[in-house]
Design goal:
The chain is an alpha/beta fold. The protein is built from 61 helices and 52 strands.
Length: about 1750
């Protein structure tokens, strides 16, 4: 039936044709391959055979869902195995699946037999008949092959078809005695109710089951035997290709089903699987399972062989390219539509455009011929930006990949405007090997190629359009050769590389990826360990420096900011991004994508050329390193920022404090805390330390593992890997395989991880029945990946405990000769038990692993195979003899430590003269496995022993192995049993965090930087530099680089380890609405109050903290169950040594762990005051309880000795929550000259140590200097400043302006008594609010007070601030009622005031309005009326930014009583006027109308794609008038960006920079934020010519208000003082200032002197004295509110952190051409609408609009 050969149409065919002709049909063959029945059914139902898989799976589904209809038929066989086997494509059908197909499809199947001696037809009808049934006709030839049928239109018997159908049905019903009511019931079933339908179906299933049960045992056995024989015959005839094809179809079908599976169905399926597995496991006892595993060698067990077959079947991949994202990546299933294949990510992306599509600018353009084939130096010559990665070129390399690494950090030089570069300007050093032929492809330069490439880029790349061709540089290039100006050094060939790798087997020539004959095509960054090379380079550089050659490495004075510079990748790698498309640094995507995901996409981006997949980004020698560098450094800075935010105490340490730590050798706690934040950075030292601690927690929780294992990569041999790169494996050469690995490090690394994951599943779990595992990836000296791990088997007999028993017997045997008679009996018992235990260990080891070689090469009978055994495919090993030969070949070629050398394993230990192999080869032969004990060194000199397994061995150089493991993995591997805890701990120290100890590198970097820093260095920047330098020590191979960029895990485990702190630490969170900081309850808090869950979880009160955290967690204030694989890692951890200094703390935290306690921690020590004595006595008392005996691990040892544990030092929980932005002064401190630089961005400054800061005093007379502190106050009292009067014409009012004016006029004309007026005048920026305010001032005159919420806004309307008018509290200062003189002064000021106008009311918060209400009541004495019966008129735009540190007026939940008072007062404003005509955005031309409409949509978050494209026309790369904006005000979303730009401008002045520190009255005052100190910064940075802003209102009437800008002219310092001291004054020339000047020579100059402000807290009064100034080339968008700027350069950031920030920023200008806007994604604009705050604000605007409509009706 399922033969691969074509069916011959002989006599059976003719017989079938004749039978079919009787009913007007002819046979139609639709193919075989085991699927002929299903293909025939598909052809009958759908007209083609393509749906055969669905037909088969429909039948399988029916078998699975209705086993009661079939299962009795195969009771002697496994139902699950039957379903699994029948699910495989190509499996022959039988009567069960045919019946199941009929049942599932509700069709009657007529099977016409070709055998003349058989009945003419067999009719299969559904058991559960439903509705109208379709009838299909299938032919059956010689009981071997099914064919479909088609109607013969020329046959005269076609009219008989229906009659024959009825005849067949009638005969079938008659022969089988089926009741006629079955046919009649069809209509009844379709008409019945759903409930009755189900009931009837249930009855029918029961009836069918009953019929099947009547079958006799003999008949059933006979039928099942025939079925098994038939299946066995079919499988035996199946070829390997057909089998692979069948399995591939099964996998594809299963994967297809899983993709369409709903979450509920998935959970249901998994539940059924778990229940079935549990049922099967329960039926097999532990003893039976152990006997099954141990009684026979694993490699001989049928199940194990099957598992390895399944493993190799799972590793067959084919590369397919997604039609959308064009990523070409291996998959292990066959897509239905090859040409229209879409990856799962693109399929699941339902939005448009899809993220990784061409429409989202994520598909790079093809590389033109002019850029193809450029060498690395040629590309660098034409690149506008040059990443400095300290790269060098080196032929060959030690052990292949040695030197393939990158050092953090990197810089990117400034953009070139003239190309090509001169070769001497490239940071390239050619390292030559003495005595070698040094030919380097990558440093060759061809002049014409450079010229052609540059010309193409100028013509086609928009980022090269303004480039000037440097003909002099171009002509200096060689026609074809290595440029003479490239720096080169010559060094010895270094071979002695220190390594602590495991023995990875012999290094054959074919295993080495890079050898001396390989032409290198890669730039290799300098490895730190190769000191000889480094010294040679330094010596050469010294000589070159004397000859005026370029210093190395080259870093320009002002490197580019790689995180914000658009299209940086295009500028640095023009051969990868010829026209800029696909650039990962493009900020103008339609939908935003994280940088790491963009890079990952590029690495997987493939192009098919000549039948091979090429990955230009993965193959490029420098791109991946550059990308990893950017991503890693960004993560480093993020983690550092989190550390500084979470640890304000460390953030406020001075450089002197840090230096003192180093001097006192007291850096451990600080470094320990710092390293925990770095553990979130994959691959860092702290990351590996955390991995080791997690593994220790696992072993502590679940016990020691059974064995260690190691797997190496055979990336030069594995056929499954190289099949991805070539369609044929028959003609591959070592060189072609080598190039496959070199050019595809990303696929090579990924394949290993997939290979290992599948092997762990099939070998470790399915074959060895493992309980848990843990492993980590690592990279060999040659750069290839390998892994180390541990695993625990379920049949582990307790090797460590047995070894301890054997050790006791060994010690008893040693001491029995000296023992007294009464002790001999006991010792003999220990000896006997020890021997039994030793025998059990040896038997288990012999079962698990081997060191026996059936045919050692030293005996001379083994012949080396012509093909490396790792290149053999598993499917080609078909019999036992081939398997045995393959096993021997693998042993002799990859498992033997063939020779020892000083380059690899020979080491000399202290006090020894001989070199010894660190792997202890060669071993002595041993006839049988035995357990030995060897003494180990101890500090106290007492004799202690370590267990050691000596295995049966006949080959002195053979590694430990397991045959099943070796032949399955087909590469070097290792397996070592764990027989004592000492070996386990040794593994942890050596491999879990191998080669990367926790603190030495970090500590060395810390000490190094602290020794060289200055006392006035900024401590924040020092901490960042420490972290950057410590991580800069890490080197990455090519494959490891890809591992990180592909976001692959470095550690995998069966367990989820959760860190839990016992010190009460809480996670910090930020209120997203008002920015306030709160803390979440810690697990300790939840545990202390667990009693409230006792109703639902009765036993929860009796759980100790460890059990509680292992079982439960709090999610959204609900207690839910933890996954079963959760392991808690609890800290702090202290030594259990009773003589240690921290023993009392050890006892304290042990009590908190294991003793149930409630409410408070003191309950753990019986509510006694905590002390060392109390902790110790309470712990000892608890250990004597029954509860402790049951719940404390190692209870007896703890109780008896308390000396067996040795824990690490204090640890605490790490956090990564986002906190509010750091203040601008903190970022300035990171960047300002005079201290070490932040990361790599260095600001060039001359040496100003000799600058005389007293010079400026000479310009001013002594008496003028003496008057400076009180100059503003005296001038304010004596100078009469006439406020400018604006001519207001009521006739020019708009309708709404006039309506508002008339309401106020009519109210003012009303006679007393009258109700106060509460009016809101709303309008967007530029609608004439200020114009209306001036008109109202002219109307009301002295009865009106004009105020604003900010000084700048008050100045713009010639008013004062509401704070100064009503003496409102600022921050935490003055939160109390006015009394005495202050109250009298306020009452006098408001004596004639009846109306108060407040501009920019959107910045009023509930608390502030509450204080306004209180002050007005105090001022008028009318305390029982809102605002003291005064009328208030609010002007503003609710779409402007909300208040800082206060809730908006419309917020429904005030935070305090004063806030609630303000909220209620706000609701009294029922009169609203809405101004709509925009006076700022004037003009009726289309451009202005378009800009006006854009602003309105931006205001509500309804931006369109056209709006986004319009804004992108003003991005820097598109704006034609960019030069005009060099002096424009920069608006940024964050303090950090503001600080960066201000420092850049400050350094450009080339003047000495004064770092001015504030004076503080207390340590708490130092830590107070500027907001708490009226805007005064703890530290400011100034220089002559600096553009500054005033941060306090000093004299608002003349323009000296908060927000006023000016330029620093002079510094006035007292005698013998200089920065960082406070100056007596700073002379500032202010813009838009209309007051007197302190000097006649320069107008508008004002002395700004230090101001003292105070903050009242619970701890007392704290003061700060500082200059009220800050740099102002750039300001935050918050600070720009209320300004109208002639020009602005705007960056709205990546997120809408505050609702309205985008609208406020862009609406600061009158026209769109008046601004430059940094590019943003379309998603960024769409995210405005998602803001919860925006939703509340829009609801408030709708309410105000309704009130405005009502107000319009007032005449």
């Amino acid at each position: 039936m399922h033969s691969n050969t074509a069916v011959t149409h002989d006599s059976p065919w003719n017989c079938l044709s004749q039978r079919l002709a009787q009913i007007g049909l002819i046979p139609h063959d639709v193919g075989g391959s085991g699927d002929c029945f299903f293909k025939s059914v598909s052809h009958q139902l759908h007209g083609n055979a393509d749906g055969h898989v669905e037909i088969r799976m429909a039948g399988i589904s029916h078998l699975h869902n209705h086993p009661e209809l079939y299962i009795e038929s195969i009771s002697d066989d496994s139902w699950d195995n039957y379903i699994r086997q029948m699910s495989l494509p190509g499996t022959w059908c039988d009567h069960l699946i045919i019946q199941a197909v009929a049942n599932a499809l509700n069709c009657v199947i007529h099977i016409i037999d070709s055998n003349a001696n058989s009945p003419q037809a067999t009719i299969i009808t559904p058991v559960l008949q439903q509705g109208i049934q379709q009838r299909i006709f299938i032919g059956y030839i010689n009981h071997l092959h099914y064919v479909s049928t088609v109607t013969d239109t020329n046959n005269q018997n076609i009219s008989k078809l229906q009659c024959v159908k009825r005849k067949y049905v009638s005969e079938y019903n008659k022969d089988n005695h089926l009741p006629k009511r079955i046919t009649n019931s069809k209509n009844q079933l379709s008409k019945g109710a759903a409930e009755k339908k189900q009931e009837r179906l249930a009855k029918k299933r029961a009836n069918s089951k009953k019929q099947l049960s009547r079958e006799t045992a003999e008949k059933r056995q006979e039928r099942l035997a025939k079925m098994r024989a038939n299946n066995k015959k079919q499988l035996s005839q199946e070829t390997t290709e057909k089998r692979q094809e069948r399995l591939a179809k099964i996998r594809a079908n299963q994967k297809k089903q899983l993709t369409t599976e709903t979450a509920e169905k998935r959970q249901e399926r998994l539940a059924k699987r778990r229940a079935n597995y549990k049922k099967q496991s329960s039926q097999q006892s532990a003893k039976e399972r152990e006997e099954r595993l141990v009684d026979s060698p694993i490699h001989e067990q049928t199940q194990a062989k099957h598992n390895i077959d399944m493993f190799h079947n799972s590793n067959i991949y084919t590369v397919y390219q997604c039609s959308l994202c064009q990523e070409a990546w291996p998959i292990n299933f066959t897509p239905r539509l090859h040409n229209q294949y879409q990856c799962s990510r693109c399929t699941n992306d339902k939005e448009l455009p899809k993220k990784f599509s061409k429409e989202n600018s994520m598909i790079p353009s093809s590389v033109p011929p002019q850029l193809e084939g450029l060498t690395q130096v040629e590309e660098m010559l034409v690149a506008r930006a040059l990443p400095i990665m300290r790269v060098y070129i080196k032929p060959g390399g030690q052990r292949g990949y040695s030197g393939h690494c990158i050092n953090l950090p990197q810089n990117v030089a400034e953009l070139a405007h003239s190309l090509p570069r001169y070769p001497k300007d490239l940071s390239v050093i050619v390292v030559k090997m003495k005595g070698k032929d040094n030919n380097f492809k990558d440093v060759t330069v061809r002049r014409q190629n450079v010229a052609n490439a540059l010309q193409w880029l100028i013509n086609n790349n928009p980022h090269y359009k303004d480039i000037i061709v440097n003909q002099d540089s171009l002509n200096s290039l060689p026609l074809h050769g290595v440029p003479q100006d490239l720096l080169s050094v010559e060094t010895e060939n270094l071979e002695n590389i220190e390594t602590c790798e495991p023995d990875l087997g012999p290094q054959n020539e074919e295993d080495i990826v890079y050898n001396e004959s390989t032409e290198m095509s890669s730039f290799l960054p300098i490895p730190e360990c190769q000191q000889q090379e480094v010294q040679a380079i330094q010596q050469q550089l010294l000589l070159c420096h004397q000859a005026t050659h370029m210093p190395w490495p080259t870093v320009d004075n002002e490197p580019l900011n790689e995180y914000v510079n658009p299209f940086l990748a295009t500028l640095a790698f023009p051969t990868l991004f010829p026209d800029g498309k696909g650039d990962p640094t493009n900020p103008s995507l339609h939908r935003n994508i994280p940088l790491a995901e963009r890079v990952k996409h590029l690495l997987r981006f493939g192009e098919n050329k000549n039948g091979r997949w090429l990955y230009r980004f993965a193959t490029h020698p420098r791109f991946a390193y550059w990308a990893l560098n950017m991503i890693q450094r960004k993560r480093i800075l993020q983690q550092t920022a989190i550390f500084l935010k979470q640890n304000p105490g460390e953030a406020h340490l001075t450089a002197e404090n840090l230096q003192q730590m180093v001097a006192n050798n007291n850096t451990h706690v600080f470094i320990s805390k710092l390293s925990r934040y770095l553990s979130n950075i994959t691959g860092s030292n702290a990351y590996w330390h955390k991995a080791k601690e997690d593994l220790k927690a696992i072993i502590s929780h679940v016990g020691a593992p059974t064995f260690f294992f190691t797997f190496s990569s055979a990336d030069m041999h594995w056929p499954e890997l190289h099949a991805l790169f070539s369609s044929s494996l028959t003609n591959t050469t070592p060189e072609s395989r080598r190039q496959n690995v070199i050019n595809n490090p990303h696929i090579t690394d990924w394949f290993f991880t997939q290979h290992l994951e599948n092997f762990i599943k099939h070998w470790l779990y399915s074959s060895l029945d493992a309980e848990w595992h843990w492993y980590r990836f690592e990279y060999q000296a040659r750069g290839s990946i390998h892994c180390h791990g541990v695993a625990k088997l379920k049949n582990d007999p307790g090797l460590c405990q047995l070894s301890e028993t054997a050790l006791r017997g060994y010690l008893a045997e040693m001491s029995i000769a000296k023992a007294e008679q009464r002790d001999t009996l006991e010792l003999n018992e220990q000896i006997l038990e020890g021997k039994k235990a030793s025998q059990a260990v040896c038997e288990y080891v012999d079962w698990l692993l081997s060191t026996y070689n059936p045919n050692p090469p030293d005996e001379g009978s083994w012949i080396k195979p012509s093909i490396h055994p790792c290149q053999r495919q598993h499917k080609d090993i078909v019999n036992m003899q081939q398997s045995d030969d393959d096993y021997v070949d693998l042993l002799n070629m990859i498992q033997r430590h063939t020779r020892c050398s000083t380059n690899y394993c020979l080491r000399k230990k202290q006090n020894e003269s001989d070199l010894r192999c660190r792997f202890h080869f060669p071993f002595q032969p041993c006839t049988s496995t035995k357990l030995e004990f060897e003494p180990i060194h101890t500090k106290d000199g007492n004799a202690k022993y370590k267990a050691k397994i000596v295995t049966r061995r006949n080959d002195s150089r053979l590694n430990n192995h397991q045959r099943l493991q070796l032949q399955g993995w087909r590469a070097n591997c290792d397996i070592q049993v764990v027989v004592d805890y000492h070996a386990c701990v040794e593994y942890l120290a050596k491999y879990a965090s191998k080669g990367e100890p926790r603190s030495p590198i970090l500590k060395q970097a810390f000490n190094s930087i602290m020794h060289t820093c200055k006392n006035n260095s900024n401590p924040t920047k020092l901490i960042k530099k420490v972290i950057m330098k410590s991580l800069g020590q890490r080197d990455f191979s090519a494959q490891e680089t890809m591992h990180h960029l592909m976001s692959l895990k470095l550690v995998r485990s069966s367990f989820n380890v959760i860190p839990i702190s016992l010190d009460g630490s809480r996670r910090i969170k930020t209120n997203t609405f008002d920015g306030s900081i709160t803390t979440n309850d810690s697990l300790l808090d939840v545990y202390a109050n667990r009693e409230k869950y006792a109703e639902t979880i009765p036993d929860i009160v009796m759980l100790n903290f460890i059990d509680f955290t292992s079982k439960y967690k709090l999610v959204n204030k609900k207690l839910i169950t933890q996954p079963q694989n959760t392991i808690p890692r609890v800290f702090p951890v202290f030594s259990s040594n009773p003589k240690g200094p921290n023993f009392s703390l050890y006892c304290k935290y042990q009590l908190l762990r294991y003793k149930p306690w409630q409410a408070t921690q003191e309950n753990a020590w019986d509510n006694q005051p905590g002390s060392d004595k109390i902790y110790i006595t309470s712990w000892k008392a608890f250990l004597q309880t029954k509860y402790a005996k049951q719940h404390v691990p190692d209870w007896f040892e703890k109780l008896q000795t308390l000396q067996n544990l040795s824990e690490n030092d204090t640890d605490s929980e790490d956090f990564s929550e986002q906190l509010p932005q750091r203040e601008e002064w903190m970022h300035l401190g990171d960047l300002i000259p005079g201290s070490l630089v932040n990361t790599t961005e260095q600001i060039s400054q001359p040496d100003y140590n000799s600058y005389d800061w007293q010079n400026d005093k000479c310009k001013y007379a002594h008496h003028i200097i003496g008057e400076m502190p009180s100059w503003i106050k005296s001038k304010q009292d004596t100078c009469l400043i006439a406020l400018p009067q604006q001519n207001v014409s009521i006739s020019t009012f708009s309708d709404m302006q006039a309506h508002a004016y008339n309401i106020i006029r009519k109210h003012s004309e009303k006679a007393f008594p009258k109700d106060p007026l509460f009016l809101i005048v709303n309008g967007v920026a530029g609608t004439g609010k200020s114009y209306l305010i001036n008109a109202i001032r002219n109307l009301l005159r002295t009865s009106c007070a004009v105020t604003a919420t900010t000084g700048k806004a008050a100045y713009n309307i010639n008013g004062c601030t509401i704070h100064s008018l009503l003496k409102l509290p600022v921050g935490t200062r003055g939160n109390k009622e006015l009394t005495a003189r202050a109250l009298v002064r306020l009452q006098n000021n408001l004596k004639r005031i009846a109306y108060i106008i407040i501009d920019e009311y959107s910045m009023l918060g509930q608390t502030m309005l509450g204080w306004i209400d209180r002050r007005c009541r105090q001022a008028t004495g009318i305390s029982d009326e809102v605002f003291g019966h005064l009328s208030l008129i609010l002007f503003g735009d609710p779409a402007q930014l909300p208040p800082v540190a206060d809730r908006p007026l419309y917020h429904s939940k005030p935070t305090s009583s004063i806030g609630e008072q303000g909220h209620l007062a706000y609701l009294m404003f029922t009169n609203v006027i809405k101004l709509s005509v925009n006076q700022r955005v004037q003009g009726s031309n289309p451009e202005q109308s378009q800009f006006r409409e854009l602003l309105m949509r931006l205001r509500t978050g309804d931006c369109t794609e056209q709006d986004w494209k319009l804004l992108l026309t003003r991005q820097p790369t598109n704006a034609p008038n960019l030069v005009e904006f060099q002096d424009a005000t920069r608006l940024y979303f964050s303090n950090e960006e503001v600080a960066n730009y201000n420092v850049e401008k400050l350094s450009a002045l080339q003047h000495p920079i004064a770092c001015v520190n504030a004076r503080h009255s207390s340590d708490l005052a130092k830590k107070a934020s500027p907001d708490e100190m009226a805007g005064l910064e703890p530290c400011i940075f100034l220089a002559k010519g600096a553009h500054v802003m005033l941060t306090l209102n000093l004299w608002t009437a003349v323009g000296l208000c908060n927000g006023a800008t000016g330029t620093v002219i002079d510094f006035i310092y007292a005698n013998n003082q200089q920065p960082p001291d406070l100056p007596e004054a700073v002379i500032v020339k202010f813009d838009n200032y209309r007051g007197p000047s302190i000097t006649e020579s320069i107008s508008s100059c004002v002395p700004i002197c230090p101001i003292t402000v105070s903050s009242q807290t619970l701890d007392g009064l704290h003061e700060r004295q500082q200059l009220p100034l800050k740099l102002a080339w750039a300001i935050t968008i918050h600070k720009s509110q209320g300004l109208t700027l002639p020009k602005a350069w705007i960056d709205i950031g990546q997120t809408e952190r505050t609702a309205g920030i985008s609208y406020v920023a862009i609406s600061r200008v009158r026209t769109l051409p008046s601004c430059i806007i940094e590019p943003m994604t379309f998603e960024r604009l769409k995210s405005i609408k998602k803001s919860a705050s925006l939703k509340f604000r829009i609801e408030e605007e709708e309410r105000l609009n309704e009130l405005a409509e009502q107000t319009c009706q007032i005449k």
